């Protein structure tokens, strides 16, 4: 006959911890009662009827019985709950460590089944918290590495405008690489330019320009602001991003688009004209008229000149991506010396470079040509190629060309790398912009500044 147990009671009976405590108390109490009953059942009842002189002995026996009962109850309770006290103490210590953000502790698994289950659950929670903390720590390290390596300037301020956090770019912009955490923003702005100070004190973000040093190109920056509440206190985030390179790239992209449109339209007109000139020469060949020959020669000469003019601009607009290969610096300098003379300064890099040889040779030839046309003596033009490392640890090659010419005025330096700007009467204004396009396509950079005494210095940096 089957027995249906109500409430899905399991047949695997387990004695709960609370039941054990109750049983221990009941056993201790019953033992005490039984002991008292056995001791008081007859000797004590008879002694109670005795005269007064025997009452002292009776109360002494009663006190001994009560003391024996208390001792027995305490001993049995202590024996039953000794592992419970140990487990609870270990659990308390473990939770105190949790409170102090220390998840390295684990408690022993022993004793009662429920205590063992509780200890196991505690240890599993500690292991899970340790793993989660390690994951968060690694993520924080990765995030900090990304922020510190970012070229964007990042400042985190509290509500009192005191700097809480700053990345490496911010330290180099404001304090030459030294730590600025803990300083006041107003104190920090005392050592920067007026343009930067005004931009950072403006409650709104936007674009602003900073005058470059060494008569270089002005820098355009974008400032964005953010605010959030953390631990009951408002924090302010300032992000500064240099936009000069991006704006120049967009400007060049617009110029290229215009050049492609103009070149297409001019080619559509020049090609029929050249064809008509050839047809006209054939038709009028029997006339042998000198005036017609001069007219055809003039038209052909101007169309050829216009075609070459269009080709030069189209080459700038359709510059192909660099096809990098291994370059021998000794061989490259020998090829350059066959076209323009220069003095090689310093030792050439021991390692070979990786770049587009044709494009880079065109860049260096153009820069050497400009150096010779600057009014410098031939022996005053120098070239140096050496290994270089940036502040962020990026290794590369630094190429420097110096001359002893007249140099450039500040206005010319600001526009020298812009398309169509030229100080030469017959110049197209595409030489230096083409050099810049090739160098930036190699993820490099070009800079120009007047030398201290005389002449111009052009520096090209290329990543390895």
Task: Give the topology.
Layout lengths: L16 H32 L6 H45 L13 H37 L3 E5 L5 E4 L1 H8 L9 H5 L4 H8 L4 E5 L8 E12 L2 E10 L1 H40 L6 H28 L7 E3 L1 H9 L5 E2 L8 E3 L1 H16 L9 E8 L5 E8 L7 H6 L15 H11 L3 E6 L5 E8 L1
Parallel strand pairs: 7-9
Antiparallel strand pairs: 1-2, 1-5, 3-4, 4-5, 6-8, 9-10, 10-12, 11-12
Q: Tell me about the biggest sheet? A: 5 strands, antiparallel
Helical residues, percent: 40-55%
User: Hey, roughly how much beta strand do the residues contain?
Assistant: 15-25%
Q: Please report the total strand number as a whole number.
A: 12
The appropriate CATH architecture of the largest domain is 2-Layer Sandwich
GO molecular function, one term: protein kinase activator activity
Organism: Shewanella atlantica
Catalytic activity: ATP + protein L-histidine = ADP + protein N-phospho-L-histidine
Subcellular location: Membrane
